[in-house]
Amino acid sequence: MSSHSIIPSLLHLPVELTYRILDHLAPSDILVSVRDVCSRLNAITNIYPRFQTLTLLDLQCSNLSHDAAQRLSNALKSNQTFTSLNLRFCSIDALKSEYLGDSLKSNQTLTTLDLLSNGIDNEGACCLADALKINQAITRLDLTRNNIGSQGAQYLADALRINQTLKILSLSDNTIGEEGACYLSDALKINKTLLALHLHGNGINNRGAQCFADMMMINQGLITLDLSSNVIGDEGAHYLSDSLKINQALTTLQCNSSSISDAGVRYLADGLRINQTLTKLNLRSACIGFEGAQFLGDALLSNRTLTELDISFNRIGDDGAQYLSNGLKNNQSLRILMIQMNNIGDKDAQYLGNAVKINQTLITLNLRNNGIGDEGARHFADGIKINTTNVITTKVSHSHQKLERINIISSQYSRSHQVNKSPMKMESIPL
């Protein structure tokens, strides 16, 4: 090739050949490298079939430059096909958030925006909040693990007072604290469309829990509230219990990894006796002892809506397991009970096994990492042989003898069981 040879440019290639080149590029490369180079390439990509039908754009871990973020923003303003955008781990700072916010003000097709683990701070949250006041398409926004504090939460709360389309908002692992929690809860007294709010690990205290409890006495739209891994104790549980007695919308409450002890569980149990909508309650890794298990067992006697209860990694012990078994004998709604790592031994495995004989709804009982041996395993197998209604998966801790015994009992029972009845099975799953 002579020194005067001309290297063909993408700008001047025939459309058909340009398409062939685009076929070998990832959608993200087309968007941030080909778009907005010139009007001709924009026109070509606008009618490029693969680009026209693309709905999911995954730019995770792209470490977007400011120029690339601006080109992405420009593309989103005109694009009418993208419905989901993944920008996890993309180093989205305040300026890039501004570009993104500008595009959301005009884009009306994007419904899911994932911004997990970026550098979005209060200023960036402000840009996104301003966009949410105008945007009528986004239904799911994930801002988990960013640098959003109480001021950023205030900006987003202001947007929630206006926005009527967002359904799921995750602000987990930020630093909104008590003040930010109160901003958001006040906004939800007005907002009627948000369905799920995730606030795991935000330093929310009892006062913050009170703000959400006050909100739930008014709001009848929110169905999932995640307050896990915060600093909520018995006082906060008291506030939440009062709201459960009135609220008729919430179906999932996550309070795991909290400071709630037996006293707080007593309050929540009182709420469960009255509440008729909550289906999932997570109190995993709290400070619950046998008295707390007693309160929950008593609540199960009257509650008819709770289907999933997780009190794993507490310390209810044998006495607590006995109290729970009393509740299970009469409960007709619970389907999943998670009580692994609770110092339960063979003694009260017998009580739980007896409850399995009677209970007609439970399908999963997780007892892993307890002190249940072969004797306790046989109690569960005996319960399964008698109960002819449900398919029960019981997870216990590892033991080869125990696993062999359960499998033999279950196999013998399955062969002898009538065809027109649902066979029960019991699995011992190693850790």
TrEMBL record:
A biological process (GO) annotation for this entry? nucleocytoplasmic transport
An example molecular function term from Gene Ontology annotations: small GTPase binding
Chain ranges passing through the membrane: none
Q: Where does the F-box domain start and stop, copy by copy?
A: 7-54
Task: Tell me which GO cellular component terms the UniProt record holds.
Answer: cytosol; nucleus; perinuclear region of cytoplasm
Q: Which UniProt keywords apply?
A: GTPase activation, Leucine-rich repeat, Repeat
Q: Does the keyword Repeat apply?
A: yes
Q: Under which name does UniProt file this protein?
A: F-box domain-containing protein
The species this protein belongs to is: Adineta steineri
